[in-house]
Amino acid sequence: QPTDSIPLRHGAHRIGNRTDSDMAHWRDYGLGQFIHWGLYAIPGGFWHGQPVNGAAEWIRSSKKVDPKEYDALISQFNPVKYDPVAWALMAKNMGTKYVTFTTKHHDGFCLWPSKYSDFTIMQSPWKKDIIKPFVEAYNKQGIDVYLYFSIMDWHNPDWRYELKTKSDSVAFDRFKEFTKNQLTELLTLYPTTKGLWFDGTWDKSWKASGAFSDELEQYLKKLRPGLVIGSRLRADEKGNRHLDANGRLMGDYHQVWERKIPETIAEVKGYDWECVMTVPENQWGYNARWSGHVKSSSEIIEMLANCVSKGGNFVLNFGPKGDGSFREEEIRLAKEIGNWMAVNGEAIYAAGQSDFRKEDWGYYTKSKTSGKTYMVVFNTPVTNMLKVNIPKNQKIASQKLLGSKQVLPLEHIEGRMHYIRLPGGVRQQPAVIELQLISDD
Ligand code: FHN
After folding, report:
1. Taking the CB of residue 163, how many other CB atoms lie within 10 A of it?
2. pLDDT value of position 291
3. Which amino acid residue places its CA nearest to atom 9 of ligand 1?
4. For residue 377, with 0-12 CB atoms within 10 Å meaning exposed, 13-18 middle and 19 or more buried, which class applies?
């Protein structure tokens, strides 16, 4: 439990979640898309023809590539197949309500024409802003845009991992100014941006910059009221990230859920949260060689329902190729998820935790707008009988399969325990049952 025993100037400035309409809108997204795209998409996990272990977007660091050689990739960045209108349509058809796009990853390459850097899209053969048409196309499809921004910047000579000397501090002060300038530039160039998604904030230099990160957050929010910024930006003055020294969240939602989902609702501690997930193992940027387990659409949908049942949003990552096209696997997944969402989206959008006890067959969600409860079924028992323990003072008025609207048999077992029978047969994708509940008077 948070205590306020430690006096902090740069800890959390709010108790509990935001209560304004911008944040309520964020909370209702359910499903989002993440896109990692940059120079690293060109080598795609290979260096001089050899596969490199680790995440493709980290190749510069994990392969210890000569920085000059890495930065020279800029002369090959000419994504002739980049079609933001088609990207946005794919996202829309998948059921995405928001997207987070890498404006600058750790390598420092800027996908927008930043006047503060010599390492941008304008120095590449492409010579056109990537972000502007992206924002326009996604907004046109009704999808909110969030800009990913890595604080850590391997290209900028003023960036430091640690501040050991006076000259480190001087350089890092210049770097902080540069960071603020770039962020101001992004919010000015793309005024419909709904939020910023920060990364690369784990270094000692940044953790020692609690006051600056606090002031930066307040400045950005003043510049764009309503802006959503998660817990990855700030550190308190003692170097704590996400939760301050008193255990309170710094930021608008908890951003620790990377490639993992809380086991229980208790782990969420009542905070807004979002899970970001890769399709293969830990690969965010394009890697031509996906090794290890690659998730199926049913697995991804299960993760989505799991997150929503615990009040979180689920964000699926895509890593386009260097030429701007998507790999076949991602196109297929987006379609399969979209087909399911088209029928079952009401169990995901503006939905959250229900009052029912979790059962082994899957997840309950509850619509905040209609009050209906949904059973998202992944593990159908051999009997096809789904156990349902109805909360006190309620009873089931109707139980229908989403899509077909078929009414399913309901059988009372004892007490509050009931069975709902699913039709038999092999199911390719999870079934969703809509429950209408009424008061038990
Ligand atoms: O190092 C990055 C990684 O490449 C990727 O961008 C992920 C996305 O959440 N964030 C960092 C690791 O936490």
Report:
1. 19
2. 85
3. 258
4. buried
- Count Cβ atoms within 10 A of the Cβ of residue 383 and give its class: 0-12 exposed, 13-18 middle, 19 or more buried: exposed
pLDDT > 70? residue 47? yes
Q: Which domains does the chain have, with CATH numbers?
A: 21-351 (3.20.20.80), 354-439 (2.60.40.1180)
Pick the atom of ligand 1 nearest to 258's CA: 9
**Closest by Cα among 421, 401, 400, 403 to 411:** 421
Q: Is 305 in the pocket of ligand 1 (CB under 6 A)?
A: no
Q: Where are the alpha helices (H) located in 21-130, listed in sequence order?
A: 21-27, 59-62, 67-71, 84-94
Dist. CA 158 → ligand 1 center (Å) = 21
Cα 421–chain centre separation: 35
Q: Is the CB of 252 under 6 A from ligand 1?
A: no
- For ligand 1, say whether the CB of 199 is within 6 Å of any of its atoms: yes
Question: Which residue type is seen at 355?
Answer: D
Return the amino acid letter for 65.
V
- Ligand 1: atom nearest CA of 57 is 4
Token pair for 52: 């490199």
ipTM: 0.99
Residue type, 283: Q
